[in-house]
Amino acid sequence: MTDEIQLSPAKWEVPKAGPKRVPPVPTAFLETYEKDGKRKNDGRVAFDLQQMQQLFAGPKLLGAAARQLGNGNQKTDEARAIALMDLAVTGRAGHAAFKAMTKAEVRAAALDMKTDPAVVDAHVERIWKHCEALIEYLEAPEPDRASLDIGRDAKGKARWIAVNAEVDPPWRPVNVGASSFRTVDVPVTLPSKYRSQTLEARAVVAGDVDACEGWILFLHGGGSRAEECEHVAEALLAHPHGKKLALVSPDLPGCGYGQLVDPTKLGLDPTVPLKKKHENDGPFPFLDLCDAFVEAFVDAIRADEKGLKDKPIAAVVGGSLGANLSLRMAKRGKLAANAYIAWSPASIWAPVDDDLGVKNMGGMEAHKMCAAEKVAKPGAKVDENTDMRRRHFWMTFERATKFVETIVPPTVDMWWYDAWPTARAMKDAALADRAELYSEHHRQYVWRYSYEQLFFSWQHPKQKPRRETIPKTRPLMLLGAKHDNFNFANIYDRVVDAARGKAPFPAARRVALVGDSGHSLHDERPRLLVEQALGFLASL
Questions:
Q1: What are φ and ψ of residue 124, in 5° steps?
Q2: What pLDDT is attached to residue 279?
Q3: Cα–Cα distance measured from residue 335 to residue 317, given in angstroms and rounded to the nearest whole number
Q4: Is 263 helix (H, G, I), strand (E, B) or coil?
Q5: Buried (b) or exposed (e) across 138-177, using 16+ Cβ within 10 A?
Q6: Is it the case that residue 506 has pLDDT exceeding 80?
Q7: In the Cβ-directed half-sphere of 370, how many Cα atoms lie within 13 Å?
Q8: Residues spanned by CATH 3.40.50.1820 within the chain?
Q9: Is the pLDDT score of 2 beyond 90?
């Protein structure tokens, strides 16, 4: 029997420090377009800088930076030189290349580009120190970054650090907020089904892994990153009972700052449509990839973090996509976690299939977003139909579904409850996050997850209920937020149905219904979430 809890929090939970404010990109380094008579941008780095990054990899890019620093009476382009130095190490491939190169190689490249021999050594020394300092900055937790000069301009203000995921995806947060906890890279080898590819996964590790009694595996939502765990981790480690646990949060494939791999190299094609009508459990290839990745990651992190090797997973937790994956982990059972805790779960809705195809419009739109890259030519009119990056941001931050009036708001407006004091700042941060991470493959992963989750469902009409596929021996807790109840998805209503046995949903031991809250309970109510999770674990 399900234990239903009604929660009516009296006060908002507002983080002491809101999301980091991202410095604006200098106009000279932005590709802009015109719409509605105004110049706009989606954070895309100017094409000339992109071309230099593509043409001059490794030492050549730093040689180009030396050339920009000037020869004798030639005018120095200081800002462009600094941008090229940044681009040489903010990307994963560039960072690896810098660690393998020598000053002599940079000097030779600078001389090849006609840098004056009289100044080349001084330029190379300056470039080398800049790159080393920037790597130190990128490796530092957020609180320590503020004290490092490389992140400030000549006036002492936070500066924009050049990064371009479309050419070389970053390996750490650059201008957006980093974690205050330890961040690690872990090689994760996928099963043979995915060509046994080894991915360099990135994860946030909070707490003392050596002294902990167990640990929580936190799985982030769609298009998000490992830092989504930040407020929950802080609340967990501040709780008397939470201090006994550690928390680990990885970037899921194609998300965040882990190694971004072309999905075709894993044997996956993001453009293949799903069958309109499902008479079985799939296939849902990208959700299956997440399952395989999470299980392989657990093995890898236990091997890498020796303190976790023999420690139990106290709970697999997550919201939205992370909640869906928590449920899928419960179904599979390979992680042998003590509990599975899911809030605002994706795929709790019925499949988008319907005879008239009305509900499937969202599925068709998501599938379009999985297509190959399409880039508008410089100077051309740019809109959501001529450029996939523009369409990606339009779909997420602007597009609303209207029939006379708005029936579904833009996606970003469904992520946080508008009345929560930090909602506006979080939406701005979400835009900055996605601008920093955008690339063709990142977009394909993000939208493919959305596409498959619209069809995959824990409520499968006219089929054997999926509730029978999660054994009752695997304790499950669901949480729903009252203001996470938008048309077609209606996540809160579906959680209520699950609590009261009105829908074919996996039987949860406990369901918490939270008032005055939205989709992202991990941000809006982290202390409440931790208290409920620890209470559930204590009850087992």
A1: -65, -40
A2: 45
A3: 12
A4: helix
A5: bebebeebeeeebbeeeeeeebbbbbbbbbbbbbbbbbbb
A6: no
A7: 23
A8: 181-271+282-539
A9: no
- The answer regarding whether domain 181-271+282-539 maps to CATH 3.40.50.1820 reads yes
CA distance 48 to 379: 13
pLDDT digits (tens, 9 = 90+) for 524-540: 999 999 999 999 999 99
295 Cβ contact list (under 8 Å, min separation 6):
329, 332, 334, 335
* Separation between Cα atoms, residue 440 and residue 458, nearest integer Å: 30
Concatenated DSSP letters of 97-138:
HHHH--HHHHHHHHHHTT--HHHHHHHHHHHHHHHHHHHHHH
- Residue 436 identity: E
What residues contact residue 176 under an 8 Å CB cut-off, 6+ apart? Answer: 20, 22, 429, 432, 433, 436
Residue pLDDT, tens place only, 427-464: 999 999 999 999 999 999 999 999 999 888 887 655 54
Using an 8 Å Cβ cutoff, are 202 and 183 in contact? yes
Q: What is the pTM of this model?
A: 0.96
CA nearest to 59, candidates 120, 9, 4: 120
Largest CA distance in the chain: 82
Distance CA 375, CA 382 (A): 9
